[in-house]
Structure formats: structure tokens, C-alpha cells
Amino acid sequence: MLENKVALVTGAGRGIGREMALMMAAHGAKVVVNDPGVSLEGKDETDGPANEVVRDIKAAGGDAVADYGSVSDSASAKAMVTRAMDTFGKIDVVVNNAGILRDVIFHKMTDEDWDSVIKVHLYGSYYVSRAAAEHFRKQESGTFVHMTSTSGLVGNPGQANYSAAKMGIIGLSKSLALDMAKFNVRSNCISPFAWSRMIGSIPNTPDQEERLKSLRMLTPDKIAPVAVFLASDDSKEVNGQIFAVRGNEVFLMSQPRPLRSVHRSEGWTPETLRDHMLPTLKPSFIPLHMSRDVFSWTPV
């Protein structure tokens, strides 16, 4: 499905990114495997993961090149797109997957906790997308696949930085879809449920341990087919959408639209808002759910 395409997958050394890179290569794509080789906290570890994925792709008969740049740096993002152009002559697919976590309850969150997560997830998605957009525009084709999260779409405690970044990516993806549709460029989001070292690092209370057992069944390879499909020409009618993937389930996620309205021809006062608007609209208020409240059943 991706024959003759060139894909850049960020954060592709492990987990979901690795599985997407491997499956894209198996479906004919030449892949730039980006991974700086850092810990979940963003600290240097090794450049090994990217090299390992490249070796696996080549051993299976595919073609790939490693890139060790950080998506949080604009120059590095431009360089990884340039690497695709210099190595393979073009770029057709960008998968914005790189991420880190700095989970902490909001009143204890530091500026550095906030900045580092926003920089990798939101700025990183912007930097890489912006670098590729010029090439997509000139060739009048291209596909963006962004990773969002139900931490933003629904909510999770202790993740204000991550949730804000993931909701920002929703807005970025929709804007790309609108701005670049005339160039035959598409942009969609995946909200993945998969056990990874990122998920494994999230603090959990003892009552959540049973749920964690079911989450461990959600392997990263379940996400890859959706990414391959969205990257392919067979999804040419799919643009500006959000898909959640949970094991063998695929969900089309809602996007904000008006639910109900109230009107007073003479205008509103604080008192009439209290007496009229509140009781009318309150039955349609969205509950203060967490992700596990909405996705409460055990995946199969």
C-alpha cells in the first residue's frame, strides 16, 4: 500500500513508532527512522534504537535510514526532512509520534515540566510538519499522521502538560487539513491505546492494577495498520479525522460541535443565566470523566 513512498516516523526506535516504521517498510515505504535515543524524561541514553530498527527493516528486504535529531529543535526537524530528501529523493508521509512524559499533579508542576512536554509533542509536531509542508505543497501530495491521546480528548489526572499538548495537536492537524487540502495533502490523528514504556511510567493507584493487566494486552503493533492505511492513497477520502485504536477496536472520535442553545431576545444578565441558561443546558453538560471512565470495558 505504500510502494514508492518515503515516510518519516519520529520516535520510531521503540514502541508504537517502531511498529509503524516496520509495517510501513513491509508495505513498500522507504523509512527515515527518527529517534534520538533518550529516556522518557528526555535524557540522553543511546542512538541504538534507531539503528536497530533500520537493521530490522533492511534484514527484511526494506530500505531505511536512521536519524537522531530531536523534534523539539527546529533545525533538527528540518534536518530529518532533508535527510529523507537527500537519501530517498522525496518525502510523502510524516508520522509525528515522538513523545516524553513529565506526569505530576498540577499544583506541583514546574515550568520545566510544562515546557519540555509541550516542546516535544506540540512544537515537535509543528516543526516537523512545517519542514515537510514545503515539499508536500510543491509536489501536490503528502500525508500527515499525528499521535494524540484520550488524555486530552477525555482527560486524565496528573497530565496537564501532556493533555494540553495532545489537544493542541488536534488543532494543528485540523488546520493542516484545511490549509493544505488544495495541495492534495491530508492530515489525520490517531489516539492510541497501547502498552509502552510511556504508559508503564504513569503512576497508578492499587485499584487500577486490574485495569493495567488488560492494558498490557494492547500491544503497539495494533496501531500500525491504521497508520499505514492513513499514509496510503487508499485513504484519500479521509482528512481532518481522529481515530482511537484500542486493541482490535477502531473508533471515530467526535469533535467539538454545538450541543444545545438558549436565546433571550432582550439579552442576558447574570441572573437570567442562573435561572434560565443553567437549568436548560445543565442536562447536556459533559461529565468530568477520565479516559478509563469512557473506555471502561476490557479490550478483546
From TrEMBL:
Write down the superkingdom of origin.
Answer: Bacteria
Against InterPro entries, the record matches this protein to: KR_dom (IPR057326), NAD(P)-bd_dom_sf (IPR036291), Peroxisomal_Beta-Oxidation (IPR051687), Sc_DH/Rdtase_CS (IPR020904), SDR_fam (IPR002347)
Family stated for the protein in its record: Belongs to the short-chain dehydrogenases/reductases (SDR) family.
Q: Which Gene3D superfamilies match?
A: NAD(P)-binding Rossmann-like Domain (3.40.50.720)
The Ketoreductase domain, residue ranges: 5-201
Q: What name is this protein filed under? A: NAD(P)-dependent dehydrogenase, short-chain alcohol dehydrogenase family
Q: Which SMART domains match?
A: PKS_KR
